[in-house]
Design brief:
Distance between the termini: 21 Å
Mean pLDDT: 77
Low-confidence stretches: none
Radius of gyration: 21 Å
Number of helices: 3
Strand content: under 5%
Structural class: mainly alpha
Largest sheet: none
Oligomer: single chain
Number of strands: 0
Length: about 90
């Protein structure tokens, strides 16, 4: 499960959709949120219960350095016949 900041905020603030996130955490082995528990504290405990690890995002693919010495520019959409869409995301 991805612990995205948006999903974590839903639980902390008990916003619309927090039930889904809580059910997913329970299915992964977290303890249940009890009445009068602080949702933020429960979330920290639940992530610990399922042995969640914090991963760093690698950054935007447009700002990364190339992994090869050969840099090939994307073909311009106007140069590719039949394609009028933007280049694909990384």
């Amino acid at each position: 499960m991805f612990a995205l900041p948006q999903l974590m905020q839903k639980v902390r603030g008990q916003e619309v959709g927090h039930e889904y996130v809580e059910r997913r955490l329970l299915a992964l082995g977290a303890r249940a949120l009890r009445a009068r528990m602080n949702p933020a504290g429960w979330l920290a405990d639940a992530l610990n219960d399922i042995h969640a690890v914090r991963l760093r995002h690698g950054g935007s693919c447009r700002t990364r350095r190339p992994t090869t010495s050969v840099v090939r520019p994307w073909p311009r959409p106007s140069a590719v016949r039949g394609h009028d869409h933007h280049r694909p995301a990384c």
